[in-house]
């Protein structure tokens, strides 16, 4: 479970710090699949990092019960100058996993021969994306999974594998999925919010929410 109480996120800076998200209050329960519709540049990734615990709110509070995943596919911890194995050992220490547990899972999931021995900088962008995705799914039993736009990666056969493993992981956990894609949100989620005008607003109809976001974008363009 993740509970937000009057949470605000401000843009980084030393002087003026404009709000990204203002006074968000919501509760996401284990077992729920919640979709948040958000346009690019509206704080979607900042909000995902906040939910997962990577970042802290500037105002308000976040209460979590049970394990919460990193954003699925988050690759910010992967260092290009290290080997894949060294990166995965760092990840294991960060999330409290047994040594080599993530290495074994990712090696099997990625399907890349000898991936643990490779240098991170030698992987293709697609291989790095698959590795980051596998890292998130290697952590057993989070109460809540967080997804920021990325819900599956790779070629069609790899995406099928991603969907199968994620479905298994979600069998006893919840999902908060932030995306600009209405179709994907409808596919994976059954309760919805929209991030609009720096507010997190409950939403019954994603098509109406998308129309509101489009209108907001048009009005902002006319003011420029």
Automatic annotation (TrEMBL):
GO MF term (any one): ATP hydrolysis activity
UniProt-listed InterPro entries: ABC_transporter-like_ATP-bd, Bact_Polysacc_Export_ATP-bd, P-loop_NTPase
Record key words, sorted: ATP-binding, Nucleotide-binding
Pfam families: ABC_tran (PF00005)
Occurrences of domain ABC transporter (ranges): 4-222
PROSITE patterns assigned to the protein according to its UniProt record, in alphabetical order: ABC_TRANSPORTER_2
PANTHER family per the UniProt record, alphabetical: TEICHOIC ACIDS EXPORT ATP-BINDING PROTEIN TAGH
Descriptive protein name: Capsular polysaccharide transport system ATP-binding protein
Organism the protein comes from: Antarctobacter heliothermus
